[in-house]
Specification:
Elements lengths: L14 H38 L4 E9 L14 H20 L8 E5 L2 H14 L9 E2 L19 H16 L5 E9 L14 E3 L1 E8 L3
Parallel strand pairs: 2-3, 2-4
Antiparallel strand pairs: 1-6, 4-5, 4-6
Helix pairs in contact: 2-3
């Protein structure tokens, strides 16, 4: 009842009701701000404790696979996952063919930034090639948000794979929690005028492999 704004036949808003509505909004905003503050403090404390743990391993780059430009005709700039997933699929297939490895050789497989929809599309495309990614496969862009936030596409931009690798993946490798990692960054070849000209958006993706080793005692 407090959330109802009275409007008369001339579309005039009752000022008393409007003031009550504004106060209700302010009250809700304070509650939300407090919750956000608590979340930030909890995350800061957890991350501080996390980074306080000593590194027990060093990380090396052990190889990589050069990808190629793949264009399946996607011209929707709001659906970048669909534009980049085919290129990621091609690179991953090539990597496993050339290296003779299978997905379970790695204990961490990461792409970025396909988002949730692009991640699902990649898994589907790989299944058509006879490749099933393990449950621990993660997309850096999709990991920015929880499913409850309903962002669907997740994060976007080259910053996703950089920040997730340096703040999360690398730290796990330095502690020996991840031994072998396949990192598959993704990108799209377009500029601000590409969508206006109704041109398609080619995708490209390369793969890099990392391994962690314990420090000599």
């Amino acid at each position: 009842e407090d959330d109802i704004i009275a409007i008369d036949e001339n579309m005039n808003i009752d000022q008393k009701t409007l003031e009550k509505y504004k106060k209700s909004i302010e009250k809700q905003k304070k509650v939300i701000d407090k919750e956000k503050s608590n979340i930030v403090e909890d995350n800061f404390e957890r991350e501080s404790n996390d980074y306080a743990q000593p590194n027990t391993h060093y990380v090396t780059v052990t190889g990589g696979t050069m990808g190629k430009v793949v264009d399946l005709g996607i011209d929707d700039e709001a659906n970048m996952g669909a534009a980049m997933a085919p290129a990621a699929c091609d690179t991953i297939v090539t990597h496993f063919e050339e290296s003779g490895r299978s997905p379970d050789y790695y204990d961490g497989i990461f792409t970025g930034d396909l988002g949730r929809h692009g991640k699902e599309m990649l898994e589907y495309l790989l299944s058509k090639e006879g490749i099933t990614l393990p449950k621990y496969y993660m997309d850096c862009g999709a990991s920015y948000f929880t499913p409850e936030q309903k962002t669907f596409q997740g994060g976007s931009g080259a910053g996703c794979v950089n920040t997730v690798f340096n703040s999360y993946i690398l730290k796990k490798m330095q502690r020996g929690e991840l031994k072998r990692v396949l990192l598959v960054p993704t990108g799209a070849l377009l500029n601000k005028d590409t969508p206006l000209q109704k041109e398609t958006i080619p995708g490209v993706s390369h793969a890099v492999t990392f391994e962690s080793h314990p420090f000599l005692q």
